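Homework help board

Subject: predicted structure for assignment chain

Our instructor gave us this sequence and asked us to write out the predicted structure in token form, then describe one feature. I got the tokens but I'm not sure how to describe them. Can anyone check?
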Amino acid sequence: MLIRRLTECPEFIAGDNSILRELLHPDKADLKLRYSLAHAIVRPGVTTRLHRLTTSEVYFIMEGEGIMHIDGETSPVLPGDTVYIPPGAKQQIHNPGTRDLVFICLVDPAWRKEDEEVW
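My token output:
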């Protein structure tokens, strides 16, 4: 049985400038997964750097409020919202609120540095 506690996962600044904690990644543990799973935080007033992945990505918004930008489309996001980001889409998220924007990121196939382009 594998249980990952968020507080035991190291925090780091991702290439898009969000604060990440990697929860599950098949290259870093003996897991039979295609995807990777991470916990992300975007601080108030921060916009992540414009980036795109060659893989698909899903955000599940847990706390705070955000403005999602995908390939020129913009939409507000709130807790309970799920955002699908297709492969190759230019994306970023902005936190216009006064609290942290917290969400889960699922990348399929699993995230790899060479699959991401950041501007």
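Reply (TA_rk): Your tokens look well-formed. For the description, you could write something like this. The mean pLDDT is 96. That's the kind of observation they're looking for.
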